[in-house]
Amino acid sequence: MRGLWATNWISGFILTELMLRSNEFCNFSTEYPSLLELGCGNGMSSIAAAINGKFNVSTTDFDNNALTLSKENAALNNQTSINYFTLNWHNVPSNFPEFDMIIGADIIYMRNSLISISNLILNKLKPNGIAILIDPGRCYVEEFLEHLKAINENRILLLFNLITKTNFKNNFKFVKSLNVLILQKLDSVVDIERSNANFKVFYSHIDKILDQIHVNFTENRVSDNCNLEYGFSV
Ligand SMILES: *[C@@H]1O[C@H](CO)[C@@H](O)[C@H](O)[C@H]1NC(C)=O
Ligand SMILES: *[C@@H]1O[C@H](CO)[C@@H](O)[C@H](O)[C@H]1NC(C)=O
Ligand SMILES: *[C@@H]1O[C@H](CO)[C@@H](O)[C@H](O)[C@H]1NC(C)=O
Ligand SMILES: *[C@@H]1O[C@H](CO)[C@@H](O)[C@H](O)[C@H]1NC(C)=O
Q: What is the pLDDT of residues 138-149, one digit of tens each?
């Protein structure tokens, strides 16, 4: 039985869709050519970024089984250019490279990782880089953002899916679309109207994502353990 990481969480689909379609509305891959994924799981989002063509994708996980599965899935998609690194958020080598874009889906789920992940972003995101994180809206998010205060707020894009409702407040602006709640600080790099138009389709497009990305689901499902704290699988 593979671990929770092998499951396709909703957040992973959102990130995958974003990576597949980012050039349609942001030209992300030309603006931010080097990309680091934190906690790649089964590799779907990194594969999507690689299919996108222009990103130099480095995908990481603490669990080598996740990297192995990601490689298998990349091979199913004929994606051979992805770089794989085992990465411990609590012990990032100082010579680990810096990146233009750091992405992660469902990585803010353990309180004892908040400081490590935020330090990683502060240390390894290039000066004009951007971090894109997707989360169902877990209780740790505000605390996590506190740790990232040193970074210009326009460089963090946090997208929340609607499955868990959250009560974030004040300096955030909510954009409610059909299925996805987009929470971003004002003046975020992604224009709200455009992102609204694009994110609207996320959930209804899961089948289409799976048409484009071939993921080996065998043994990937973990059915009984999915409580709200960890999000939902589909
Ligand atoms: C993306 O880049 C291409 C070519 O550089 C350009 O034609 C297009 O308008 C850009 N798209 C957006 C949404 O900025
Ligand atoms: C892609 O990124 C990896 C990891 O940082 C780096 O070693 C490699 O040189 C990069 N490749 C290109 C073509 O920039
Ligand atoms: C991968 O390449 C093989 C051999 O060229 C081809 O048959 C297959 O359809 C490709 N798979 C995808 C997902 O593009
Ligand atoms: C999918 O994974 C299973 C279990 O690891 C493996 O037996 C099977 O060969 C894989 N399928 C493909 C198409 O890679």
A: 677 778 888 888
